Amino acid sequence: CSSEVVDIHRILADFEPFPFVETPRNAVKRILASLVPWQPQLVTRSSSPDARWPRQYSAEHLNISLHLSRGGRGETMLLGLFSSKDADKTMEELEGIPVNLYPTSRPSFSWYENEQKGDHHEGPMLSTEIDDLGNVVFKPVPDGEYIMVICLSENELVIEGLVIEHGS
To answer: Which of 92, 126, 134, 152 falls 20 to 30 Å from 159 in CA-CA distance?
Structure first.
C-alpha cells in the first residue's frame, strides 16, 4: 500500500491538468453559436424549448435566424438568414461562404465529437452557400438531429442541436 502511495505522489507531481498545446497557425478556430430566446413563452411538460422554431442564434458578429418551411411537395426546408451585428460588415462579404448540414442521429455517429478527437468524419448530408442577401436553403431535410457548420474564412461557426421533426 505504501508503495502505491509513493507512485501516486510521483504521478501527481508530474501531472499537468491543462497542458499547453501549441496550435498550428493554419488551425481553424471553432465557435459555437448561442441560441437566443425570441421572447418569454409558456412552457408546458409536452413542449421542449429546444424544439421550437423559428430559432435565433448569435456568434461573434453574426445573427442567424433559422426557420422551417414546407416545399411544394410537402418536403421540409430549413431556411437561414444571416445578418451582421457590425454596421461596417456588408452581406456581400458573406456571399459564397459554404454552409454544411451534418446528421447526428446515426448510430454511434457524432460529427462534432469525432472532429474533436481528430477522427475523419463523413461529408455533409446537405451543402449550400450563403447568397448575396444572406440566405441559405436546405431541402429536402428529413426528420432527425443536425449540426450546421458555417465555414468562415478564419474559423468555423457551429450550431448544434437542430432537431427537425415532421410537424415542427
So the answer is: 92
